[in-house]
Amino acid sequence: MSFDDSQRVEPTRTLLCEIEGMHCASCVARIEKVIGSMAGVRQVNVNLATREGRIAYDPQQISTDQIMARLREIGFEPKLSTAVRTASASESRLARARLRRQVIEVLVGASLATPIAILGMTHIPWAYKDHFNFIATAVVLALIGRQFLVGAWKAIRSGTADMNVLVALGVSTAFLYSTAVVLAPDLWQRLGVVPHTYFEAAAVICVFVALGRLLEERARLHTGDAIRALLERTPRTVTRVCAGGTETVLLEEVQVGDVLILRPGEMVPVDGIVVDGASWVDEALLTGESVPVEKHAGDRVVSGTLNTTGALTIRATHVGADTVLQRIVQLVREAQSTKPPIARLADRVSAIFVPTVLAIAFLSASFWLLLGGKAHLGHALQSFVSVLVIACPCALGLATPTAIIVACGLAARRGILFRKAEALERSSELNTIVLDKTGTLTQGQPALVKVVSFDPTRWSDDDVIQLAAWAEQYSEHPLARSVVAAATARQITPPPDRFQAFPGKGVVAEQGPQRVAVGSTALLAQLGIPIEKAAQLMSQLAEEGTTPLAVALGHECIGILALADPLKPEAPSVVQSLLSCGYEVWLVTGDRQEVGRAVAAKVGIKHWVAEVDPFGKAERVADLQRNGRRVGFVGDGINDAPALARADVGFAMGTGADVAVETGDVTLLGKNLDALVHALDIAGETMATIRQNLFFAFVYNAACIPLAAGVFYPISGILLNPMVASAAMAMSSVSVVSNSLRLGRRLRRSWHRDASGGFSLPIRAKDNA
Questions:
Q1: E strands along 639-678, which residues?
Q2: Cα separation, 75 vs 726, whole angstroms
Q3: Separation between Cα atoms, residue 69 and residue 35, nearest integer Å
Q4: Which residues does 430 contact at the CB level (< 8 Å), separation at least 6?
């Protein structure tokens, strides 16, 4: 079958861009609404904390240039995101330059606003103090207020309103009214109004809001520390083998197939294969494993890991954006740019926030004028400006993304990848964890766990092992390889003269008159070897969850080897942590009943199911969900993919099959099951932080806006000063970002405390209520 190229449908593309000029949740809502309404745009996700936009679009209906042009039309400065490392360096430089500019502006503005406030709020007998305040405030507006005025103009021109509109309208009202008082004082006296200037309000508001943005920018920079730490794991230059010896080249110049030299203490710059040398490589940053891994010729190394002791020569297999490190960074960035369902509440509020605040400001001013007429003009003006200034869509916009950025970055450093922010929220809501056995609770490879010699005076345990390994050395069966691995190569030579495999039963090897058989009792019976003393013990070992192999020399059964997939050392403590926190824990395995029962007993799991196929695992997950359980499934194999996809959250062990990793919502990069506890810990703490942020943002606005409008004035006689309102608004967004940064410190302290004695999750499993 062939297809005409003209009929081929080009898939949806994704535009990644940095968007300058965003200051609040209303900016985000405006971009998502305007760009989302363009023909051909499928989805828009904008992150205020990272100032990044992710736009999915149909290239047959709309182009990147059209999207970028539309962003500029509505008042923003978009820029295409570059390569991950380059983008990070560029972002860092831009952030530092932006901070320096903001610091200078705030210092100059504060040096002018201080005398303005002193002159405006005291009764210093100086005839020209209002004229001085007029000129100084005009300078402050030109220096600092310009950003609000320009931003407001762009927003109004595009038919929307944002934080800039609120601040600009409040500052302009105070400044223009005060200017009219200074330039035409007689006019106000003829109108019967006692004139009063508010230059100090306009100037101080500008300084406080600018200071808030400065502090917010500084705090926001730290939310990306984890990603920057990952990116710094790659060196700028590398040593490459060339025809004349070696040469030092930039990392960007390395191509697939190049041979590189790694000295002790150097970071692995690319993914590759060791072609010479031996060393221990610290993979803790990527996998969370604290013990370095020994590497020899033929072993795989990945970028971002640390070569500790010896020199290695590697051949590059993946470079640039194709390396494991860069793919991890990209996955983390994608997760950071998405929104969990809880963020939709803030989005809905932000969409109507600014129009609502404008309405409240006009209503409060109108009320004061209707209540007292000209005598209350000052109260009307003060409440109008205070309402506009104190309202803070910034806190709403930063509540979710700052916490998500901190959480995803910290998780990546622990070897945990959340594919989407939604997985964080769903992980925090789980109350049931279903664990696969092989490769999840166990090592994933059979190993010799017990040796029995029927006559230790003649045959020691080592003798039984060596004879079995000698017979099994040519077998391709996984159990045979485990037996051979338990012996040493020196002791299993020379090879047998004759070797025969009996499928499903075992093997027989002969050397001269000697014959060694290794396998089931059925094989021994077939060979005419008495099995009475072996049969009962082998049945008992099978009940304990092991696979027993009888070892016979000549016509005598001399011993039994018991093989099993050993538990991971941390498996029992992880299960106990989950149970103690209220999770219902299940074991689901395709292995036989005896094995499932034995493993469940060893780790303390009461609910288990064995001898199920891949679809049976998925059906068990579905059964639990139908009973109202919110299920997380943890697995690593191809046979786990259906269950990983069916679960509310799929946790894929990164050492498993690619299809399992691709299917999972969360990837646990290392072999250690402790990462599951870390992932649940991160999810629970992150959602708690987001709820705290949203609660603070909503309560702040709900309490402060009525206060600014003068609702409590008849009771308390207090009418909020616009300068105090601006300071409160600035601190609200800073507090939200600071609370998100505190999330990282809380998690690190928790992990440090639990490092030597297991784990205790601070967030308990969600009940069904």
A1: 649-653, 666-668
A2: 24
A3: 11
A4: 583, 630, 631, 632, 648, 649, 680, 765, 766
From residue 761, alpha-carbon distances to 232, 392, 436, 576, 658 in Å are 31, 34, 21, 11, 29
Strand partners, 417: 667
Give the DSSP H/E element, type plus range, for residue 324.
helix 324-337
pLDDT at 516: 93
Distances (CA, A) of 415 to 287, 406, 409: 4, 14, 10
pLDDT of res. 260? 93
pLDDT for position 559? 94
List the catalytic residue out of 436, 463, 591, 640.
436
Number of Cβ within 10 Å of residue 745's Cβ equals 10
Report which of 162, 157, 150 is spatially closest to residue 354, judged by C-alpha positions. Answer: 162
Cα gap 20→35, rounded to integer Å? 15
Asked if 572 and 587 touch (Cβ cutoff 8 Å), the reply is: no
Torsion sign, CA atoms 81, 400, 577, 589: negative
SS3 content of the chain, % helix, strand, coil (to 5): 55, 20, 25
Active site residue 225: no
Which token pair is 619?
Answer: 């059906």
Radius of gyration of the chain, Cα coordinates, nearest whole angstrom = 35
Mean pLDDT by 10 residues, the chain (769 residues): 39 82 76 89 82 87 91 85 50 71 87 86 78 91 86 76 74 82 73 68 80 69 60 80 86 90 89 91 62 82 84 91 77 63 65 78 84 70 76 69 80 82 88 89 84 91 90 79 73 76 85 89 90 87 86 92 88 93 90 84 91 82 92 80 84 64 75 89 90 82 80 75 69 79 76 50 53
206: how many CB neighbours lie within 10 A of its CB? 30
SS (H, E, C) 518-586: EECHHHHHHCCCCCHHHHHHHHHHHHCCCEEEEEEECCEEEEEEEEECCECCCHHHHHHHHHHCCCEEE
User: What gap in Å lies between CA 750 and CA 754, rounded to an integer?
Assistant: 6
In angstroms, the Cα distances linking 596 to 610, 644, 715 are 6, 20, 70
User: Residue 717: helix, strand or coil by DSSP?
Assistant: coil
Q: What pLDDT, on a 0 to 100 scale, did the predictor assign at position 726?
A: 67
Residues 613, 727: Cα–Cα separation, whole Å: 62
Q: Do 323 and 307 form a contact (C-beta atoms < 8 A)? A: no
Q: For the full predicted model, state whether its pTM sits above 0.70.
A: no
148 in Cβ contact with 202 (< 8 Å): no
Crossing angle for the helix pair 393-413 and 674-709, to the nearest 10 degrees: 170
Q: What is the pLDDT of residue 657?
A: 46
- Length in residues, the chain: 769
Output the CA torsion 148→149→150→153 (10° steps).
120
Q: Which residues contact 326 (CB under 8 A, 6 or more apart)?
A: 84, 85, 303, 320
- In the three-class reduction of DSSP (H, G, I as helix; E, B as strand; rest coil), residue 497 is classed as coil
Please report where in the chains the tokens 């297999």 appear, as a residue. 317
Residue 752: what pLDDT? 55
